[in-house]
Design a protein that fits this description.
Order of helices and strands: HEHEEEHEHEEHHE
Helix content: 10-25%
Largest sheet: 8 strands, mixed
Distance between the termini: 25 Å
Number of helices: 6
Number of strands: 8
Length: about 240
């Protein structure tokens, strides 16, 4: 994500609302429910984490069998261009628990962790300082966690990304650790208390995206798919 403050017209201006409503045009955001869709999401992750950043991490990994996968696609080209993973704590310990002892308010089955956020380089710039693909993925994240009545959203961010999540109203825990699996990079633990969405995002310029309002570009089935892989043997596990 790029840094720097976002500059928008007043949030109640009609032209601003039209601008925001059109931001996701040309993309499709979905919660993966087929082996093919999951394979495409994992391939984006592999291209960013392994081929792009050079991280020596398995793709897929041990958390994938108990996670959901979100996928962003360029409608015109059919390109899978972004992905993020959601892991509910009710299915087992979160990845961040390899490095942190979670604060007591987060140590419950209602916590959900966002990990393996990945966008292809050519889709990282756009009309706002947050890539459009990011907005669409986070919009869908919120729709998914609303369905499961989650209590807290947990994320770990590099120091240069922390301010972005604070802008999205995530709270800092003050806990940091070096992620050995990600080249020893320092990460800080942040969280969002989902019971405070209405209050914390009431005046946010991108409120419709972050509170999970419905957009035609976001596709979420009435019934959420099971966690993990519908057919593990059909996934490509090479790096």
């Amino acid at each position: 994500m790029q840094s720097g403050p976002v500059q928008l017209p007043p949030s109640d201006a009609p032209e601003d609302e039209a601008f925001k409503r059109g931001l996701l045009s040309g993309y499709r955001f979905s919660l993966c429910s087929t082996p093919e869709a999951i394979s495409r999401a994992i391939d984006v992750r592999r291209r960013v984490y392994v081929h792009g950043n050079g991280y020596d991490v398995p793709v897929p990994d041990a958390y994938d069998p108990r996670s959901w996968f979100l996928l962003a696609e360029d409608v015109e080209t059919g390109t899978a261009c972004g992905t993020v993973r959601l892991t509910p704590r009710r299915a087992g310990p979160l990845e961040c628990e390899e490095y942190f002892r979670l604060p007591l308010p987060l140590r419950n089955a209602g916590a959900v962790e966002i990990t393996r956020f990945a966008i292809l380089p050519e889709y990282r710039k756009g009309k706002t300082f947050l890539p459009v693909v990011s907005l669409g993925l986070f919009n869908l994240v919120k729709q998914v966690i609303d369905r499961i009545d989650a209590r807290n959203l947990v994320i770990c961010a590099k120091p240069e990304r922390v301010w972005t999540y604070e802008w999205m109203r995530f709270q800092r825990t003050g806990l940091s650790a070096r992620y050995e699996k990600l080249a020893g990079g320092e990460h800080e633990l942040l969280y969002f208390d989902l019971r405070r969405v209405a209050a914390d995002l009431a005046d946010h310029p991108f409120r419709p995206f972050l509170v999970g309002e419905a957009f035609p570009e976001s596709q979420l089935a009435e019934i959420l798919p099971e966690l993990g892989f519908p057919a593990p043997e059909r996934l490509c596990v090479g790096a």
